[in-house]
Amino acid sequence: MIQGTGSFVGKSLIVAGLCRLLRQDGFKVAPFKAQNMALNSFVTPEGGEMGRAQVVQAEAAGLEPHVDMNPILLKPHTDVGAQVILQGRVFGNMNADEYHRFKKEALRTVMESYGRLVQKYQVIVIEGAGSPAEINLREGDIANMGMAEAADAPVLLVGDIDKGGVFASLVGTLELLSMEERGRIQGFIINKFRGDPSLLTPGLEFLEKKTGIPVLGVVPYLKDLYLPEEDGVVLENFSEKEERQVNIAVLYLPHISNFTDFDPLEHEPGVYLRYVQPGQKIGDADAVILPGSKNTIEDLLFLKKEGYADEILKLLRSGKMVIGICGGFQMLGKTIRDPFGVETSLGEVEGLGLLNVVTILKKEKTTFQVKAIPLSGEKETLKGYEIHMGDTERGTSSQPVFKIIERLKQKVEVEDGAISADGQVWGTYLHGLFENDGFRQRFIESLRKNKGLSSSTRIEDLDYKAFKERAYERLAAALRKDLDIKRVYRIIGVN
């Protein structure tokens, strides 16, 4: 099990790297995270919903993602409440106290999933959540040491040196654990180091002497490495790397979800993708994207209150494009109705009015893996997935953008999305669209054409699948070089 001294120390990355490394060495390996609180999710081929981090780890292991790899997914919709998803299906909404009382029942679900994985794979690499030293959450814990005990798993503890205070955080974590819990920790991993590792030698020697636990390696800060962030986006400005011909702005809504939709655009040569944080101006952009949301109505009201709706209209008047994905698509319409109080007690809210559609929020969530075709004439079959709580009806003059031809591997014919008469505004329920190379590159080319850029100045296209594979290989190579893998294998119990 890989645990950390806190959130964002690199647990997900280490798990993904170990999954790829073990796969390279011929082991049948699978990732597992008992309880994942995340804004980003994915739909499996069976229609189950799970956290994106375990999807990435499954890809690194060469596996099709399955909800058993993440049996509990918590999707926050307020500061104190979350939607609870068990083995891929919505169980209900709970506040923190309700979920704490529910943990004993949740553990049964966790162990059912874990047991099925144990039957199929030689090695399970388990990811913890946050820190095991959160003493207020220890009772009934199923995410960290409680899971390690249930699986009888040795633990490697990861600390982030880039944040500073890594030795204090590692030693402090141990101090807050029981003697039995400390006994499970078989090694430290220091992550995200920049500089000459020899400068760390005195600190590493002190740490091992102080704790009696070996440092298994110091992993460097790996720049430009593909790994979608689970709960936050990387906000560094990469524009200095190369000429950026297209500028795309994504609104970072208060309840943003599934912003991993835009990772392929971020890595596309010639594209500058940026997230507009609350309080920032959209400014100049060739396209503005309204992403998915865990509370569409509140985020819509936020856009209006903070002046973003006016900025969007100004950009439209200057000929720029506006796109909505899922909740963002709903916001672009005339109204959003909430007859069952799924998100609000307001009943009905006026949308941005940029598309002639009306959305009605429903009690049941739609989750499908799909195949679709564009209705603009291209022959490519697109892959994506749906995760939404509402249905959207188009007006008589409104045209769909896609036709869904397959759901859960069953043939269907369902029209999706809507587009304005001038083509400047369009929306869809399909997540994962930009992972389709042909579609993504046509989208970028349309923005370039709108700016008057010629095809002769176009920068080389991105093969997204190959890009991810190179990143997994690079990650595994870094771990193989900088960790004592033989010792890690002895700790796991494999040779």
Provide a short characterization of the protein structure.
With 495 residues, this protein is an alpha/beta fold. The protein contains 14 helices and 26 strands.
Question: What does this entry look like structurally?
Answer:
The structure is a single chain. This protein is α/β, with parallel strands linked by helices. It has 14 helices and 26 strands. The two termini are 17 Å apart. The longest helix has 25 residues, at 96-120. It has a six-stranded mixed beta sheet with strand order 15-13-16-18-26-25. A hairpin with a 2-residue loop joins β23 (402-407) and β24. α1 crosses α13 (464-482). Helix content is 31%, strand content 28%. The model is unreliable at 235-242 (pLDDT under 50). It has two domains: 2-226 and 469-492, Rossmann fold (3-Layer(aba) Sandwich), CATH 3.40.50.300; 243-458, Class I glutamine amidotransferase (GATase) domain (Rossmann fold, 3-Layer(aba) Sandwich).
Which structural traits does this protein have?
six-stranded mixed sheet; Rossmann fold; alpha/beta; 14 helices; 2 domains; 31% helix; 26 strands; 495 residues; 28% strand
SSE map:
Elements: E1 2-4, H1 11-24, E2 29-32, E3 35-37, E4 41-43, E5 49-51, H2 52-60, E6 72-76, E7 81-86, E8 89-95, H3 96-120, E9 123-126, H4 145-151, E10 155-160, H5 166-175, H6 179-184, E11 185-193, H7 201-211, E12 215-220, E13 246-251, E14 256-257, H8 263-266, E15 271-276, E16 287-290, E17 292-293, H9 296-305, H10 308-317, E18 321-325, H11 327-331, E19 335-337, E20 348-350, E21 357-374, E22 382-394, E23 402-407, E24 410-416, E25 418-419, E26 425-428, H12 437-450, H13 464-482, H14 485-492
Parallel strand pairs: 1-10, 2-9, 3-6, 10-11, 11-12, 13-15, 13-16, 16-18, 18-26, 19-21
Antiparallel strand pairs: 4-5, 6-7, 7-8, 14-17, 19-20, 21-22, 21-23, 23-24, 25-26
